[in-house]
Amino acid sequence: MASFARLIRLTIGAWAFLLLVIALPAPSVAQQVNPTASSVKEQQLLQELNRIQGRVSIPDQRSGVLVQPAGRDWREFRNVTLRWIGGIAILGMLAVLVIFYLSRGMVRLESGRSGRTIVRFTAFERFVHWVTAACFIVLAISGLNITFGRPLLLPLIGFEAFSEWSQWAKYAHIYLSFPFTIGVVVIFLIWIAGNIPNKVDIDWLKRGGGIIGHDHPPAYRFNAGQKAIYWIVIIGGTAVAVSGYLLMFPFYLSGIEGMQWAQVVHSIVAVLFVAAMLAHIYIGTIGMEGAFEAMGSGTVDVNWAKEHHSLWVEEEQARAASGSAPRTAAAE
Questions:
Q1: CATH second-level architecture of 116-331?
Q2: For this UniProt entry, what is the primary localization, expressed as one broad class (predicted)?
Q3: What's the average model confidence in pLDDT over 119-123?
């Protein structure tokens, strides 16, 4: 009887063990390879964490960052948004200038040339202007290549030529940034006195600055339009220089997020800077008769000076009459 009861207990225990084994899930191949795979969900991590970062054995611990979700927004800005901003700003400005030129034409010297000239800019002033301008043009072209080169230039010249061009453009962009920055600083120092806004500028703007219509409002050495260009150069040049050096010397003052913001600021200010300089180039060349001579030879016709900067001419004449050395000297 005791042996029979023992047999019953063993039988019940065997069936219970068998049922327990059947109820337990069999381990999958994925679990055998990586037991934590089921606990890692990419979308959940992207939503809940700022970044996915692990451990690395090399000295540069930043390489341990596997995913930085903010980088997706930056890439979208660089590849899509920036191209729209740059295209609208630059092409829009070109379209406005073409339409304005076709409707208004060149602003002519209405009183004709007197045959007498007055010194407008010294040799040093012109040297600083042209060095800074030349650096800006190269920086603008090489910078636009980063944004628009791949979709526009690459299909036209091919991979090898585009690679060679982009490499030299990168070198030019880096090394010419230094003389450009120095030029902006010198421009700020030598022309700051004449570029402080005043009440005359308000009247100049109200009367269209001589660009709209045939009115010639009085102005000192720099009118309101030139003062606007001056401050665009100073503020815009400072912004692109500071943000550019943050990118040129990475991780010294900020992390990857700070560098992304620096690139956003650098690129937006740069394309708006280019658009503004297109207007400046237009006025200084085909937009106004006699304007290029100011930075070309350094002298302008006296009648041109009286039409566009009458208050400045009066100042120079008063200096000459008082016997003090004028900042600019008249020349036959």
A1: Up-down Bundle (1.20)
A2: membrane
A3: 95
